[in-house]
Design brief:
With 224 residues, the chain is mainly beta. Helix content is 12%, strand content 33%. The strands form two sheets. It has a five-stranded antiparallel β-sheet, with no helix packed on it. The chain has a five-stranded mixed β-barrel with strand order 3-4-10-9-6.
């Protein structure tokens, strides 16, 4: 998964995710890695849910160079709890990454050309990916809060487009995923399965989405 859509207004986010303070947000139709994404998280210091804008591409706290984040935009759900780049965040810093939908690219034809697809819930509702976040600081004092999105095996719908799909968290599991006191690996892993394909839809869209600077509603329009 390489791009996200998030167009919902602050009121919808506050209601859906029970967040007290949500600033006004500009609709975004083509959010690419290294850009900021809208997230929900909790901390020991601030146990209530809070909205925070995090850089997409996780930078581990021990990293010497922030450029590593470009390679860590996604983490495999099956192994994230064990990988050095993600295991600390998996235990203590889990978050929800908000979206209306996402783009995925399907290889087609002998030349393996890639056709972008817009994927979303059938009901059109706002939803959340399972994410991990970190706070990184360099020797000059620059601080960056970043995140990654967990991926898993595709459901029947997504299998025809790509061999992976992002983990979409069920609303009843939000509290459990965000609670840093929960560290039972088997329980957390049980939340990271494929979202039911019958609740999703996908359709081909314009190749406008291939350029990250095209923050246009046309990016998500069906291509006939």
């Amino acid at each position: 998964m390489a791009e996200i859509i998030q167009t919902q207004p602050a009121e919808a986010i506050a209601k859906t995710f029970q967040v007290a303070e949500v600033p006004a947000l500009t609709p975004r139709y083509n959010i690419a890695p290294t850009q900021s994404v809208t997230t929900i998280l909790q901390t020991k210091v601030q146990p209530d849910r809070q909205l925070r804008m995090l850089r997409w591409g996780l930078i581990p706290s021990w990293a010497k160079d922030k450029k590593i984040g470009v390679r860590l935009i996604n983490a495999r759900a099956e192994t994230a709890a064990e990988k050095p780049s993600f295991r600390s965040a998996f235990r203590r810093r889990r978050c929800l990454v908000l979206a209306d939908g996402f783009y995925e690219w399907r290889k087609q034809g002998k030349e393996q050309l890639k056709q972008p697809y817009y994927c979303r819930l059938k009901d059109g509702n706002l939803f959340a990916f399972a994410g991990l976040w970190e706070r990184w600081q360099d020797t000059t004092g620059e601080t960056i809060e970043s995140c990654t999105i967990l991926t898993t095996k595709p459901n029947q719908l997504m299998r025809s487009i790509h061999n992976r799909m992002p983990v979409i968290v069920q609303p009843q599991d939000y509290n459990l995923w965000l609670d840093s006191q929960v560290q039972e690996m088997e329980l957390l892993q049980s939340l990271l399965g494929s979202y039911p394909s019958e609740k999703m839809m996908a359709y081909p869209v314009s190749k406008l989405v291939n350029k990250a600077s095209n923050n246009l509603a046309e990016c998500m329009q069906c291509e006939t």
